[in-house]
Each structure stands twice: as C-alpha cells, then as structure tokens.
Amino acid sequence: MKALITGATSGIGRDMALLLSQKGYDLIIASRDTKKMKQVQKKLNTNVQIVTVDLSNIQDCYKLYDTVKQQEIDIVINNAGFGAFGQFWDIPLEKELNMIDLNIKAVHILTKLFVQYFRQKDSGYIMNVASSAAFLAGPLMTTYYATKAYVLRMTEAIYKELQKDNSNIKISVLCPGPVDTAFNERANVSFQLKGMKSKAVAKYAIDKMFEGKMLIIPGITMKITHIGERFLPEKLLLSCAYHFQNKKG
Question: What is the SS3 assignment for 123?
Fold first, then answer.
C-alpha cells in the first residue's frame, strides 16, 4: 500500500503522512523543501520516498507524476497550498499568480493525471485539500478564497462523473475551518476563532476519505456555519467575511 502526499512537511499534510504510515502505508512525499521532508521521513515507520519539486511550476507537476507513475499508488492527497492577506490592490501580483499556480493548476494537473492513472485499475483514493474559505468570497484574502472555491467545485464535479461511470475510484475534498498550522504564519494572519488541532483534522479527513465521503468538513462549528451560510444574503455574507478577515490582520 502506498500514498502520495504533497505539502507533507508540516501541518495537516505531515499529520496525514504520520497516520497513513501508522496504518502501514509506504509514503511518497513531495515538496520543494528537502530538509523538512527528511525530518518528516525520520518520524515515519514505513518506507518514504522524497521527491523535491516546486509544484507552482507546471513542469514540476508533470515531473512528479513521471517519477512515480510506474509505482502502485493507492492514495493521492493534494495538500500543498498557501494564502496571502491584504487588500487586493496591495498584494503583489507575482505572489497571487504563484498562489494560483500552486493552489489551482498543480491540484488540477495532478488530479487529472491520477484520475486517469486510477481508471486503469478502477480503484484508488484522491483527496484534494480546500478550505471552508471555498464556501464564500473572502475580502482581504480574495485570491486564496477563490482558489479554494475552484478546488471544491472541481472535486465535486469529478465525484459525480465517477459515480455516474460506476467507478470504484473515490474522490474527496477537505474543507477545514481554522487549523493551528504554519499556514497562518505564511499568510500573515491570526485566527480569532480557536483553531482545531492539525492531528484531529488529519484523522477525521483520513477516516472520511476511506468512507468515500465527498465533502469533508471537520468540527461541528464549521458544519453548522456551512449550513447557516445557505440562508443568508450574499451581501451580508460578504460583510461578515470582511469583518472576520479584518480581525486576522
């Protein structure tokens, strides 16, 4: 049994790697930070292959796939991604385009390639990591929210296509709320709501992935919030989102 995880050097990705290793899975972890991957490698009890790639570079997405496609992979988790806080006109365009490349293009490419890969044997699990940010627009984190909405809707559509095709491939999208990870430092934000523990989110996500659940929302608070959002006017949601985002800065 083997799983591929991108962005496994910290937070949810690292904890997913630890959990899957405990379940007996060999791991392939992909990131641009070789040093951190080696640190994770030391904590895992099963075999771990390290692939150093910058997934914001499209060619590296294909490089990753070409490196592992001859192996028997059972699980793919697209976890790599980052955010940025600030007024839309203040955030450097280069940073936003890099975010789109990593949060959208890399996830799209790897999902496409591994759906095709898994269709050859009619089995496999794919989990794309989005965010509760995917459910609404996000003033002050405009591009990040938009990228996660793309991941959510793409994954849901693929889920239905696979279902209609009577496929045994399972695809899920993880949409956590605030989580205590290094993501917050890179995005330069601090959550006002108490974040869930990364290990708890990772365990819940892995369990639900194996159950074949399409939309995975850890924590009762975020489940209730997601349901409540459906009944509020769009402009009110925008005002609420701005209010909470503004407190993060």
Answer: coil
- Which sign, positive or negative, has the C-alpha torsion 94, 96, 99, 104? negative
Q: What is the pTM of this model?
A: 0.89
Residue among 54, 55, 53, 45 nearest 21 (CA)? 45
How many folded domains does the chain comprise? 1
Backbone φ/ψ region at 178: left (φ over 0), alpha (ψ -120 to 50), beta: beta
Q: Which residues contact 42 (CB under 8 A, 6 or more apart)?
A: none
Residue 38's CATH number: 3.40.50.720
Cβ–Cβ < 8 Å for 83, 7: no
CA–CA separation, 171 and 223 (whole Å): 20
Instruction: Spell out the per-residue pLDDT of the chain, length 249, in tens.
Output: 999 999 999 999 999 999 999 999 999 999 999 999 999 999 999 999 999 999 999 999 999 999 999 999 999 999 999 999 999 999 999 999 999 999 999 999 999 999 999 999 999 999 999 999 999 988 999 999 999 999 999 999 999 999 999 999 999 999 999 887 665 555 455 545 567 899 999 999 999 999 999 999 997 877 777 776 777 677 877 777 777 777 776
Range(s) of the domain holding residue 109: 2-248
